[in-house]
Write a structure and sequence with these properties.
homodimer; 419 residues; alpha/beta; six-stranded mixed beta sheet; 9 helices; 27 strands; 28% helix; globular; disordered C terminus
Chain lengths: 419, 419
């Protein structure tokens, strides 16, 4: 790579960063793609790893492998500690990366809204380690009860009734029915609680689909409790406050946090205005004010279009990544960047086996057809042919046999930091 | 389960324990199978997980799932802390298990021969967590070199030139050639060293197969160094002493320990005589002296037959498990137990893609036929139909594309103990 080429630094190899780099495959640029993990993660299927249906490698592709044939990109495993937009440099743990164009696509993380002490007892679901952690806790809870002979039903609490919360709760409800081979306890008697402070589940969906999702959850045996605000979480309980201000304590073997996200701390390093969730307010062309060569995309970007915010979903990040790549190509060819336009392809929330709700271009449907649409779309977007094939076989097998083969409890030593 | 049934307690769900329990499927007994992990592990393929070729779930089956249809067994996830053969009880962390017959099949672990301080810097390969740990170190070493721009070739050291050492070294040598997408370093220039204190590799194999294995290792680019005793290991080096007493230090990015095993500490709890490796000296019927209802099988048992020790390999453990089940069934029917006879089905050591040596019933062969035999036998013995199918697809894919899809570095938080 020549140093006289236009240098593009991309921070983050999620859906946004990955698509920006792919979109520059044939551009005369020198790209450096930096991520603190060595793999791109297909986050929409992370709950399947957490519930033992898929293996980590099924939904993760090593970034270096994804770009092994794209010659204008250098992949670096590094953690960004500082960004200086005026000096046009990004600093990692030991290196500094100069740029002509910067794309920040660092995504979002769990938001405990100031209660970070809840994180160890109520893990969220953003990284592979989160998923294998929750998977281990879930199966260990049954093993512990079987060993001690405590036959009182286990309670699993999912906080947050957005799409992720529904997936986790719905899949857990299915799992407890497929847990066979216990002689003392009855896993099927377990309670799955889905709690949200809002009055409705799936706040961003139309009322009729919310109703359908609620019915499907009920059918699966998930107890939905809306209007309940979580005020405390311990290793064995969740304390909630109802709308009348009454508090109560729920015994909980495991609590999963799906209640909110906040932007990566990298957003604050740019010096631009951020919203309450820490997302960077971007211009219509996805640059930050005063810095036409600094782009922020994906879950880290805050942008309104036609009066409503562009949602923090994978399709938006993909579109933004592609848009920025196009803008850079246009500028290199002497043109000027265009405004980003989010094309809403619809929304899909899955609840379990044959259970889902879909709202695609105004067409609303639910149940098996929605679930099938969800399945096909997700397999289609999985990175890597082999992953797609293996996941399809695994799912077909799980669907027919109600088997979940990746029910592993792996006790890890703490991993030494690699960078 | 009735408490008036003959109570069989089995400790350990490796090849020995698993086959003992299966062999008692139709016997009028009340079995308790105790293991500290929730999964049976197909250890012969653990090196494939360590080198990114297979996922943990491909080679591990949840024990409870294996026995979901066998009604006379209760599976318990527990760690044994004491055994009282006179009182006929086994103690776990909180429970105590009474038995009429006890089968101890707790296996073996790494033997650092008094240098336990080497374990964190030179992990062995016995558990899933070991394999994902080594996998992470391996891929992180390349990432670190690429990030810092240090282009000096990496050195990977494997200590111990038995079958496991050969598999790890051979597979690593292949992997460094399939690592694509680096722009600064050249993974293919990496050195793989296989070190052993003995004068030969594969000490238990006939000389002509040793020679063939040595040739195949050389062809793969593995440097074999025999007659070198390891005297110290740090995070970045291995110090060795040659037969003339000269010491030297080898730079090592990663060191993998495959130099020896010692029996589980449970062997010492039985009060019977143990050998130097901590294995329990058993009677010809696999019981311990003076306790005709206490069996020790698998890698934990020490037994000589026709002048040579029964080897610590999977087929021996499987045969012992089946034998003990048969003895118990015989005794329940009023008969008396028989002597165990080890049927040596031969030995197979794999080195890499199309590279292996085999010695099956006197028939010695090497190269592709030996590798194919190894592959088919290992797939055949994988527990669970789905695992077999997925592993076969994965291998076919890897073989054609030289791809290793499970190249993941997952940084785990320390896992809280589950028992």
């Amino acid at each position: 790579m020549q140093s006289d080429l236009h240098r593009v630094v991309v921070v983050g190899a999620g859906f946004g960063g990955l698509n920006a780099v792919k979109g520059l495959a044939r551009a005369p640029v020198d790209i450096t793609l930096i991520d603190r993990e060595n793999h791109h993660l297909f986050q929409p299927l992370l709950y399947q790893v957490a519930t033992g249906g898929l293996s980590p490698a099924d939904i993760a592709s090593p970034i270096r492998h994804v770009f092994r044939d794209q010659k204008n990109v250098r992949v670096v495993l590094d953690e960004i500690v500082a960004i200086d937009v005026d000096a046009a440099t990004v600093s990692g743990t030991t290196n500094s990366y100069g740029f002509d164009t910067l794309i920040v696509a660092a995504g979002a993380t769990h938001n405990y809204f100031g209660n970070e002490q809840w994180e160890p007892v109520a893990p969220g679901l953003k990284k592979l380690a989160d998923a294998t952690d929750i998977r281990g806790r879930f199966f260990a809870a049954f093993e512990e009860a079987e060993r001690t002979g405590d036959t009182s039903p286990l309670t699993f609490v999912v906080v947050g009734a957005g799409p992720t919360g529904l997936e986790v709760a719905g899949t857990m409800a299915e799992m407890v029915h497929s847990e066979k081979g216990f002689t003392t306890i009855d896993p099927a008697a377990s309670r799955i609680l889905l709690i949200d402070a809002a009055p409705h589940i799936l706040g961003s969906y139309p009322p009729d689909l919310r109703k359908k999702a609620q019915d499907q959850l009920k059918h699966l045996g998930v107890e939905v409790r809306t209007g309940l605000k979580v005020v405390d979480i311990t290793a064995t309980s969740v304390s909630v406050e109802d709308e009348q201000g009454h508090t109560s304590e729920i015994d909980a073997s495991i609590t999963v946090w799906a209640a909110g996200v906040k932007a990566s701390r990298l957003g604050a390093m740019l010096g631009a205005e951020v919203d309450r969730a820490g997302r960077v307010l971007v211009e219509p062309d996805l640059t930050i004010p005063g810095h036409p060569h600094v782009y922020v995309i994906g879950d880290l970007a805050s942008l309104e279009q036609r009066g409503s915010p562009v949602p923090g979903v994978a399709p938006a990040a993909i579109q933004m990544g592609k848009h920025v790549a196009r803008s850079i190509r246009l500028q290199l060819a002497g043109g000027s960047p265009r405004k980003f336009r989010y094309a809403d392809k619809g929304s899909l929330a899955t609840i379990g086996r044959s259970a889902a709700v879909a709202n695609i271009r105004g067409l609303r449907f639910s149940g098996f057809p929605a679930w099938l649409a969800w399945l096909l779309i997700h397999i289609y977007f999985l990175v890597g042919f082999q992953n797609r094939l293996l996941v399809m076989i695994q799912w077909a097998f799980n669907y027919i046999t109600r088997n979940r083969s990746a029910r592993l409890i792996i006790r890890h030593r703490p991993t030494p930091p690699t960078t």
